[in-house]
Design goal:
BirA Bifunctional Protein, domain 2, binds magnesium ion, elongated, 8-stranded mixed beta sheet, 5-stranded mixed beta sheet, 2 domains, alpha+beta, binds adenosine-5'-triphosphate
Length: 444
Amino acid sequence: MKYQRIKGTQDILPEAEPYWAHVTSTVQALARRFGFEQISTPMFENTALFARGVGEDTDIVSKEMYTWLDRGKDGEQGESLTLRPEFTAGVMRAYIENGFASRPQPQKLYSVGPIFRREKPQKGRYRQFHQFNAEIIGSDDPVADFEILLLTHTLYRELGFKNLVFQINSTGDPECKPRYVAALKQYLLPYADKLAPTDRDRLERNPLRVLDSKERETLPYLSGAPHIVDYLNDDCKKHFDEVLSYLSAVDIPYQINHRLVRGLDYYTKTVFELWGEGLGAQAALCGGGRYDGLIELLGGAPTPGVGFATGIERIIMSMQDQGIEPPALARPQVFVAYLNEAAKLVAVKLVTDLRNAGVGARIAFGGRSLKAQMKDADRTGCRFALIIGEDELKTNSVILRDLGKSEQASVPMADLQTWVTNLIDVRTTPPQEEQPESAAEEAK
Ligand code: ATP
Ligand code: MG
């Protein structure tokens, strides 16, 4: 029997590590630079939380969740649990449950981790993937929306993406949104028969969702649809204008996209996606928005919030598409080789000392000939070999070979400490020619 990974999941191989390390460390450093703190919520929660928090009507809840019945006591059936299909609902639950409302507001919280959705697997679409998620909870100030937008933009810019443009819209609030939804429905009803079947359905249940439909049959009827910005009340209009004015103030480009909405009742005011070079609407880099009704919906006191989420795999895929290279990772530059069992004992101590001194080092495996060990040293890309042979055992020294220059010298063990101290510089500096362009440029 051969085991295979589950459809839609992936093994993230060591080859991908430079990307993962770079993206996750950039994300974390940036979140902290902006004053966010990390919150890690469980990977599974009560199904009802997501049903409520994401919305029964969404693709996610209606067909993409991994849900199961837990074991109960004494063989009884337990509660219904679900692997998280997004972060926001769990973060809001934690905000309420941990009494964050009594901490200074707003709370700026970020999370990184795996997300599960039973989608049709395809390029850039997995059933287990990873998100970076950020939320500002407890402020209705448009500057909070701006903070989320700026965080998003800075992240992609610092990762090396070019020509970034926000697609932005406002979805109004519970006062003005219904007026727009009624107008939209009235506009679409005459075309109901021509819309894609799913959209005909949506038109009845949630007309806003028709607006961001990707169905080919529906698209032609959307261009003439009324614009929500024309229906905003004064508060929503002022909020939207302020967010846009902050973007303009720092020269971040945006386009108002009248079809961009989040089709759920608790979404309010700002919604956005970030688009990058060469990417169409299908592959928006990420999206987010304001959801002033969500915490209340989940049982907390009315509390405004705004946030965004981005997929780490999508970021990495887009980096690869655009030839953006991550910096090379540090790797051991010293290889310890030995002639026989007695020398091996010394080698074990030596590699321990090196590592304790902060120097990345490898030790030869397998009791093979020195020649074979030197091949390994080359293969692993080490710059130096430390070789312990008969003479070295007798004289308490090591041979230090510079593998690049094929030069070598005998160094007394006692002097090795100085040599090792010098090596500390070497430890984080990969050989020059291996540095990718972007990293080399930064270093200049
Ligand atoms: P899409 O339109 O691509 O389905 P979405 O609207 O479902 O995205 P969100 O729910 O807002 O996306 O999730 C935020 C981000 O998570 C997306 O912008 C994308 O980068 C990533 N993402 C969403 N679904 C997947 C998936 N199945 N595999 C990998 N990444 C994903
Ligand atoms: Mg999706």
